[in-house]
Structures are given as C-alpha cells and as structure tokens.
Amino acid sequence: MAAPGRVAAFRLPPLPTIGEIIKLYRLKAQRQLSQNFLLDLRLTDKIVKQAGELKNAHVCEVGPGPGGITRSILSADVEQLLLIEKDARFIPGLQMLSEAAPGKVRIVHGDILTYKMEKAFPKHLKKAWEDEPPDIHIIGNLPFSVSTPLIIKWLENVSKKDGPFTYGRTQMTLTFQKEVGERLTANPGGKQRSRLSIMAQHLCSVENCFIIPGEAFVPKPKVDVAVVHFTPLVQPKIQQPFELVEKVVRSVFQFRRKYCFRGLETLFPESGRLKRTEQLMMTANVDPTLRPFQLSMSQFRNLCNTYRKMCDEDSSLFVFDYREELKQKKTTRNLLKSTSEPEQTEEEDQL
Predict the structure, then answer these.
(1) Does the reported pTM lie above 0.85?
(2) Which of 40, 80, 290, 303 has the fewest C-beta atoms lying within 10 Å of its C-beta?
C-alpha cells in the first residue's frame, strides 16, 4: 500500500512474457526488414534508463515490435506513450499493452519516415530552443535498414527545428549497428570518422551509451548493437544550412582514403576546378594533404563558411552536381566511341 500523501508508482498488471506474445500471435522476425526482437527486460530497462527521467514524460517509441521496450517505458511511469509501428502483425500485441495501461498508450499503424512528428505531442510541451529540452523523448530499437536514413532525416529536422524538434531540443535514445554507433561518435583521426560523425556531432551531443551483444536478440544478428543518446545543441557547430553542410561533408568523404583536396574538387565544375579548390582550402586554412577522417570540426566549419561565400558570389555553384558532370562526359564519350568500349575512369569507378 502506498504511503499516505504519496502517489503509487504505475505498475503493469501481470501479462504474458514477450516470448509468449510472439508465440500467441505467431510473430516471426523478417530478415528482409532487418527485424530483431529483444526479449530480455533487463536490457530493455537499461535502454530506457539511458533516456533519463521519464516520469510524467511524453514518449514516442519507434518500431515497438512485440513490445519489450514498450513495457520498460510504461514501467517508467510516463504520462503518454505514442507507438509508431509499420508492421500490422504487431498491432494486436501492442493493443494488449494499451489495455493494460488505460489512457496512457496511443498506437499509430504507419511509417516513421513519413509520419508527421510536429503534431505528435501536446502544444503546451513546447519550449524555446535555448531552454532545457522538453519533457519529450524518442526511443527506438531501430531495424538496421532504416536506422541511418532515419537519423539523417532527424538531424535535418534538428537543423531546421521542425518535425519532432518543433517542441524544442527533443532527446533521442536509439539503437544502431555497432559500427554505425562508432561512426556517430568517432573523433578526428579515428578509423570510423565519417560523414555521419560530422553531421551528427555538429548538431547534437552524441553519446555511445553501451553495447548489446548480438546473441541477446532473436534472431541473432551478425553484429552487436550500440545504444546511442542524442541531445540537440543550442548552437550548431557549423552555422550553415543543412543542405550546404551535407554537400561539403559528403564531398570530403567521397574519396576517404585520398587527400581531402581530392574530394573537395568535386564541389566545382571542371572549368576552373583546380584554382577554386586551392582558393577554398587556402581561405579555410586547411592542409590539402590531410585525409578526410583527420579533419577537425573547426576545419569543416571553415570549409563550409568559405564555400558558402563562394556560392554567394556564384549562384550556379551550389547546384553543380559532380556526378551529373561525370554522366554527361560518359554520354559524350559513348557517342564518340569506336568499336572498342572506353575504359571506366577512376572517378566513375569509386563513385
């Protein structure tokens, strides 16, 4: 019995285990959808704990599946839980959880990549960007096939302060393949430093919380899984539009084993390419013989700021597409070719 004057913590009533739910509804993880079930409630509790204090919070769980993490979220005594599940097979089991927690759960049968998150939570939860994060959290054991495109989409939302970030600096606790988790948190010089490292770290504080061994999942994936926590920064480390930063960073890492000069060349048309690349690197004060993974965040900031000024001076520059230029050159060669096939260029081979 609760102590006088103290509200009792929320407890789920006795329910079938996750394993029993899977058997009851004949659920089977589909490899083509990269589905892996986490049945150990100690591990689901540990994931939810990384999100911080959730009592009376509003939470969105992405891809709840059979509901393991869902139970741990509800046990944290949240105010409201929004479940977004694409696979209709899981809906009946989630409805059982909803009935066990009356008034707390809302189930949406839909795709998180297209769901309008800017209307997912009550308006009164909104906070100014400069304030502490709102009492809203996104949690999810993401299928590997959707995790990278989804985090890129959400990072763009962070940059533009829309989607789930119309409410302020909404925090996220998500799972990724171990290698992707290492990329998200990699420091300059690290072998996993990549485009994903820069895009995530210039917009968010990113923490690789812990690793879940693959054998904890059913079916067992070939890789281990990282739990990563994101908190959007008040000020991005590169204060340029998302599309511009993404273009510069993508170009730099286009030839990750070569000097960064080689990747940055792809920002410019063939006519004047060398001169403009030298101008970019000299103005940004970046050593052209550094490898992409060796560049610091401040060097990426300098490159983005300098490239922005060059685009302001030449409006055709930002829309230039190096891949399109390669295609046109290839088409021209094919029109002029003789009976022998032309050799593929090194650039086309790597791209």
Answers:
(1) yes
(2) 40
Distance, CA of 204 to CA of 196 (rounded, Å): 12
Look up residue 42 and give its DSSP letter.
Answer: H
Closest CA to 141 of 52, 299, 33: 33
Residue 291 amino acid letter? R
Please give the structure tokens belonging to residue 155. Answer: 């990072």
Task: Say which residues have a Cβ less than 8 Å from residue 334's Cβ, sequence separation at least 6.
Answer: 342
Asked whether residue 229 carries a pLDDT value surpassing 70, the answer given is yes
Does residue 203 contact residue 230 with C-beta atoms inside 8 Å? no
Residue type, 167: Y
pLDDT over 80 at 196, yes or no: yes
For tokens 């730099």, the residue is: 252
**Residues 209/172, Cβ–Cβ less than 8 Å:** no
Strand partners, 232: 204
Rounded distance, CA 23 to CA 33, Å?
Answer: 20
d(CA 199, CA 114): 21
